[in-house]
From TrEMBL:
Protein name: 2Fe-2S iron-sulfur cluster-binding protein
Keyword Repeat: no
Record PROSITE patterns: 2FE2S_FER_2
UniProt keyword terms in alphabetical order: 2Fe-2S, Electron transport, Iron, Iron-sulfur, Membrane, Metal-binding, Transmembrane, Transmembrane helix, Transport
Acidic residues: bias regions: 79-95
Alphabetized Pfam families for the sequence: Fer2 (PF00111)
Superkingdom assignment: Archaea
Molecular function via GO: 2 iron, 2 sulfur cluster binding; metal ion binding
Region (Disordered): 70-95
Domain 2Fe-2S ferredoxin-type: 101-193
Listed cofactors: [2Fe-2S] cluster
Gene3D superfamilies registered for this protein in UniProt: 3.10.20.30
NCBIfam families associated with the record: fdx_plant
Length: 193
C-alpha cells in the first residue's frame, strides 16, 4: 500500500510538472528573423549602377571594343581612300595663279593666248575652229596633235591621258583634249603618231 501511495504521488507530481510545463512560456527562443531579403538588398548595393543589364553590358562592351578597332582601321582605309581619290586636275588652278601662254596653231594660221587651266582643244574651239575629237577624256587619239620642239611633256601637262606612250610623248605628240599648256609653243593639230 505504501508503494502505491508513493507511486501515486510520483504520478501526480509528474502530471503537475507536465501541466506546468505545458503552460510555461518556454525559453523565449524564437526562430531567427528571415534576413534573406536584407542580404539581397545589401548585395544589390555593392553592385555598381549600370544603365543596362549585365549581359547586355558585356555584349555592348565587347562590341564597342571591336567597333573602336574597326573604326580605327576604317579610318585608316578612309585616309588612304581620300589620298587615292585625289581628283585634282592640271586644270584646277586658283584664279590668282592662272597664266597665259602663246600657242601658235600652225594649221589654223593663228597664235592665241591659252590659259594654263584650259585645254588646247577648248582654246581652239573657243576660236571657232573645227578641231578633231571623239572621247574628250584622253582615251583615244582623235584629238592628237604635235608640238614642235621636243618632248611634249616639257610644254603641256596631260590630265590622265592613257594612249600615248613615252616615245610618242618624247616625239612631241599631245592629246589636245586633256593637255594644259605650261609654256609657249607651236602646235600642229590633227597629227597622230
Ligand atoms: S578626244 Fe579622245 S583622246 Fe582626245
Amino acid at each position: 500500500m505504501a508503494v502505491s501511495t508513493v507511486g501515486l504521488g510520483i504520478g501526480v507530481a509528474l502530471t503537475v510538472i507536465a501541466v506546468v510545463l505545458h503552460y510555461a512560456r518556454g525559453t523565449g527562443w524564437t526562430a531567427n528573423e528571415d534576413i534573406s531579403q536584407e542580404v539581397l538588398e545589401h548585395r544589390a548595393e555593392t553592385v555598381p549602377e549600370t544603365d543596362f543589364p549585365e549581359p547586355m553590358n558585356r555584349s555592348i562592351g565587347g562590341g564597342g571594343v571591336a567597333a573602336i578597332g574597326g573604326g580605327g582601321e576604317a579610318g585608316g582605309e578612309l585616309a588612304e581612300g581620300e589620298a587615292e581619290e585625289d581628283t585634282s586636275s592640271p586644270g584646277d588652278i586658283p584664279e590668282d595663279e592662272i597664266e597665259y601662254f602663246d600657242i601658235e596653231y600652225t594649221k589654223e594660221g593663228e597664235t592665241i593666248e591659252v590659259a594654263n587651266n584650259e585645254t588646247l582643244l577648248e582654246a581652239g574651239e573657243d576660236e571657232g575652229w573645227d578641231l578633231p575629237y571623239a572621247c574628250r577624256q584622253g582615251q583615244c587619239v582623235s584629238c592628237a596633235g604635235h608640238i614642235d620642239g621636243g618632248d611634249s611633256r616639257d610644254f603641256v601637262e596631260h590630265d590622265n591621258q592613257e594612249m600615248l606612250d613615252d616615245p610618242e610623248l618624247e616625239d612631241g605628240y599631245v592629246l589636245t583634249c586633256v593637255a594644259y599648256p605650261r609654256d609657249s609653243f607651236t602646235l600642229e593639230t590633227n597629227e597622230t603618231p
